[in-house]
Design a protein that fits this description.
This protein is an alpha+beta fold. It is 39% helix and 24% strand. The mean pLDDT is 93. It has one domain: 2-Layer Sandwich (Metal Transport, Frataxin, Chain A), CATH 3.30.920.30.
Amino acid sequence: MPKLPVVSGKDCVKALQRAGFVVSRQSGSHVIMKRENPKARADVPNHKEIRHGTLRAILKQAGLTVEEFMNLLD
């Protein structure tokens, strides 16, 4: 399994938007993103740096692998 990159909340939101997610709403410092097909929801903390465990949980919610997410970052 490849190493997780160090990303900010802003970069994570941009990558998820490329994967078909849209910003549904924001609750405090967390951006709630949704995708209709396939149906998924991801909660992204809008922090300068997202911890590895948190990023792994976001990818699991989004149904993405680390490789897919890294390709979306480019």
